[in-house]
């Protein structure tokens, strides 16, 4: 029996696939083109337990039908990670809201049509974005838990990429829970979601380190390439983080443990600020001394922390320790510097 991982090319999904293969699962990954399938297959050493199916665009509501029609009898577990993650658009519906929502609608309806009696667990990669009230991002007094929901509306969120992205995660996740409630007698699967904060960490494969990285790691990459002498940090984040290796591990625990069924699993290991990131860079990498920004408050606690996410409930269920900010930032940057020939 196989685990289906949608969006297998993604930063997070590549680790998920890696951990599944290490635990000897058969894995079916969806990718958008044959070329992407071939590259990933090579990167995973042509592992015979890994196969691919092409799903070009999850915006199409029947995007997953063909795949399930063909392979539903093999698929026991579904990990739906595919969803656009960027803030770089003004076409909010087309580029963010519709693919996120239709992707989740599409896969759940394909399961209902073709895998109602075979799929046992479904894990949706949601986000802290589905939990937080974006207007209170900078409110250091706001504390969220797994019970909270982003209050965004479809029309109201279409003001900027960040609001629209966060809302896209809320609408997709909300649909999933509602779908299960309405179809609980028609499908067999149990649902869990994983809701990470900003995900940092090295790319699974060094060859994928490019000038511009995936949205969350690009925060670190931009700070690594900041101007020396500058006291203003760009981007200037006061948010929360989790390491990609913990996020991948959580995707497995999310279907392996009985207690994770029906849960929103908050994935967070505490606050970070752009200042904290440049502090780590300046102290851990001697080759960067004098070559990057030091920031306005070097070595000081964040004077204006943002909202926080109390995920102690999820951490208890998951039951493994999370990787520190120092380690996550160090590993991310060491890989970039190595690729740039500076380490
Ligand atoms: P990536 O951008 O690296 O991965 C996104 C994946 O989704 C890619 O495989 C991409 O395919 C696929 N995808 C995007 N749009 C479409 C589409 N229209 N049709 C088909 N496939 C599509 O992002 P991450 O790995 O960071 O994110 C993965 C998931 O985790 C997302 O659901 C995201 O919302 C969530 N998340 C991420 C966080 C983070 O900080 N990184 C935090 C919280 C949640 P392709 O590679 O071909 O473009």
Written description of the protein model:
The chain has 343 residues and is an alpha/beta fold. 38% of the residues lie in helices and 16% in strands. The chain is built from ten helices and twelve strands. It has a seven-stranded parallel β-sheet with strand order 3-2-1-4-5-7-10, with helices on both faces. α1 packs across α7 and α4 runs parallel beside α5. It is globular. The model has no long low-confidence stretch (mean pLDDT 98). Bound molecules: NADPH dihydro-nicotinamide-adenine-dinucleotide phosphate (NDP). The site of NADPH dihydro-nicotinamide-adenine-dinucleotide phosphate has 26 residues, from α1 and β8.
Throw out a few tags for this protein.
343 residues, alpha/beta, binds NADPH dihydro-nicotinamide-adenine-dinucleotide phosphate, 10 helices, three-stranded mixed sheet, 38% helix
Present as ligands are: NADPH dihydro-nicotinamide-adenine-dinucleotide phosphate
Q: Which stretches of 5+ consecutive residues score pLDDT under 50?
A: none
Q: In which order are the strands of the major sheet placed? A: 3-2-1-4-5-7-10
Query: Could you tell me the number of beta strands?
Result: 12
Distance, first to last CA: 43 Å
Total of DSSP H or I helical runs spanning 4+ residues: 10
Kindly report the average pLDDT value.
98
Overall outline? globular
Strand percent estimate: 15-25%
How is the main sheet built? Answer: 7 strands, parallel
Radius of gyration: 20 Å
Q: Structural class of the secondary elements?
A: alpha/beta
The helicity comes to: 25-40%
Order of helices and strands: EHEHEHEHEEHEEHEHEEHEHH
């Amino acid at each position: 029996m196989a685990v289906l991982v949608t969006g297998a090319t993604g930063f997070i999904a590549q680790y998920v696939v890696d951990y599944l293969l290490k635990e000897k699962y058969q894995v079916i990954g969806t990718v958008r083109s044959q070329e992407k399938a071939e590259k990933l297959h090579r990167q995973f050493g042509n592992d015979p337990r890994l196969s691919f199916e092409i799903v070009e665009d999850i915006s199409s509501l029947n995007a997953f039908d063909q795949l399930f029609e063909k392979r539903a009898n093999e698929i026991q577990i579904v990990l739906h990670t595919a969803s656009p993650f960027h803030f770089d658009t003004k076409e909010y519906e087309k580029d963010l809201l519709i693919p996120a929502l239709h992707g989740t609608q599409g896969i759940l309806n394909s399961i209902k049509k073709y895998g109602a009696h075979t799929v046992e667990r479904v894990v949706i990669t949601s986000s802290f974005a589905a939990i937080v009230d974006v207007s209170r991002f900078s409110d250091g007094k706001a504390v969220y838990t797994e019970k909270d929901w982003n209050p965004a509306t479809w029309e109201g969120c279409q003001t900027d990429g960040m609001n629209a992205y966060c809302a896209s995660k809320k609408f997709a996740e909300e649909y999933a829970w509602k779908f299960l409630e309405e179809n609980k007698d028609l499908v067999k699967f149990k649902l869990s979601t994983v809701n990470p904060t900003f995900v940092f960490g090295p790319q699974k494969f060094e060859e994928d380190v490019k000038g511009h990285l995936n949205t969350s790691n690009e925060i670190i990459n931009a700070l690594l390439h900041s101007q020396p002498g500058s006291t203003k940090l760009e981007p200037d984040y006061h948010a929360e983080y989790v390491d990609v290796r913990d996020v991948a591990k959580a995707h497995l625990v999310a279907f392996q443990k009985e207690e994770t069924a029906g849960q929103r699993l908050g994935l967070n290991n505490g606050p970070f600020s752009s200042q904290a990131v440049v502090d780590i860079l300046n102290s851990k990498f001697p080759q960067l001394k004098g070559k990057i920004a030091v920031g306005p408050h070097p070595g000081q606690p964040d004077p204006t922390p943002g909202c926080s996410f109390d995920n102690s409930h999820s951490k208890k269920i998951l039951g493994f320790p999370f990787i520190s900010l120092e380690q996550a930032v160090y590993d991310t940057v060491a890989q970039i510097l190595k690729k740039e020939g500076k380490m």
